[in-house]
Design a protein that fits this description.
By secondary structure, the protein is mainly beta. 5% of the residues lie in helices and 39% in strands. The chain has 2 helices and 28 strands. The chain has a 4-stranded antiparallel sheet with strand order 1-28-27-26, with no helix packed on it. A 4-stranded antiparallel sheet has the order 2-3-4-5, with no helix packed on it. It has a 4-stranded antiparallel sheet with strand order 6-7-8-9, with no helix packed on it. The longest helix is centred in the C-terminal third of the chain and has 9 residues.
């Protein structure tokens, strides 16, 4: 439930759905999704490849409709998760155009979190009932490493994070042994949709500034010391190197840390991004990251990027965003308020090589 409250604290209303440009060379192009009015915004994404993208909305009152594009974001199809009435989306994971899982939490008439799977592109859905059987549990995210092995994580329940893993595509989910999970701190919860995967390693940030890590697909977990007194979002460019950004720390100032040992230890960076929020690595780049969010209580909203591993940042806009996803340095998407999402039409998010710099000088 605390992860829901964190999202509530990050949302404000009244944002005009227009293309706002702070940096003239960096832009987001709005795209209509066809989702119904009344949702708070496009919340999270799952990218299969350059053409197939899935996206979910967030709604306090519950919404069981999502969208999918199979043409690189040119058009979007609205899909209804049958059986998801009275639930709201927490996360989504798609393996391909057809196989997709959604994690949903209680909203409205329902009192249970639930995992649903579709094997036909969203035409039909089956609830995988062996996950989140506790009626007071709130799911935070879901991820599949391949078509068989997956992990789903929820808020602490009964004094321990609620986690399940599967080795058969979700036909059966098994609870992760509490012996393999660090105890939560007081008031600590996972942040919905806020996790990172590289190879066999998965990380997630908590509302109390810790980064949890598993190197065996979610069976065993470790936790870092608190990085901040507040929520943390992390992103990794490989299994060793990553960045963490404060997402609502107590002094309201964005802060940045880096790791070179897979998240075991973190070191503060001298530079700080212009906003706080959810950070994502840009695949195909060397050192590029994007931050999207509203900041704590909407005080430092917008999006920003770095192409040098966090040393310098470019502020893109000051709209209220949820999260972003990039497929390559050229192609990316970001969620925002209401039923519109945005596609990246700005510069390539990759630092020039020495050879490219020399070529420009010669020309």
């Amino acid at each position: 439930m605390k992860s829901i409250n964190l999202i509530k604290s990050m949302i404000a209303t009244g944002v005009l759905l227009v293309l706002i440009i702070v940096n003239a060379g960096a832009q987001w192009l709005p795209q209509k999704t066809g989702l119904p009015d009344g949702i708070e915004g496009i919340y999270n994404f799952s990218v299969v490849d350059a053409t197939t993208i899935w996206a979910i909305p967030f709604s306090f009152s519950g919404c069981h409709k999502l969208v999918k594009s199979v043409d690189g974001g040119k058009t979007w199809k609205v899909i209804t998760v049958t059986g998801g009435e009275g639930l709201a989306f927490a996360d989504i994971h798609a393996l391909d155009e057809n196989n997709v899982w959604v994690a949903m939490w209680p909203s409205g008439i329902s009192s249970n979190s639930a995992i649903f799977h579709s094997s036909d592109g969203g035409e039909t859905w089956v609830q995988q009932e062996t996950a989140f059987f506790n009626t007071s549990g709130y799911v935070a995210f879901i991820h599949f490493f391949n078509e068989k092995e997956g992990i789903t994580v929820g808020d602490p329940n009964g004094g321990q994070f609620e986690m399940y893993f599967t080795r058969n595509g979700g036909e059966k989910w098994q609870a992760v042994s509490i012996k393999n999970i660090p105890m939560p701190n007081i008031g600590e919860a996972a942040v919905a949709g806020n996790f990172e995967v590289s190879g066999n390693t998965i990380w997630f940030g908590t509302t109390k500034g810790r980064v949890f890590r598993s190197t065996n697909h979610g069976v065993n977990w470790t936790a870092s010391e608190p990085l901040w007194n507040g929520a943390v979002s992390c992103a990794f460019q490989d299994e060793m190197t990553g960045l963490a950004v404060s997402n609502g720390n107590s002094d309201l100032k964005p802060s940045l840390m880096q790791t070179f040992d897979g998240g075991l230890t973190w070191t503060p960076m001298d530079s700080a991004p212009p906003i706080s929020g959810f950070i994502e690595f840009v695949p195909g780049s060397k050192d590029s990251y994007v931050i999207a969010g509203t900041g704590k209580n909407g005080t430092d909203k917008g999006s920003a990027y770095t192409i040098d591993g966090g040393k310098t940042w470019v502020l893109v806009d000051d709209m209220e965003h949820f999260s972003s996803v990039f497929i390559s340095p050229q192609q990316g998407y970001i969620g925002s308020d209401n039923t519109v999402l945005f596609k990246w039409v700005g510069p390539v998010l990759e630092e020039e090589t020495d050879a490219e710099k020399v070529k420009k000088v010669i020309n």
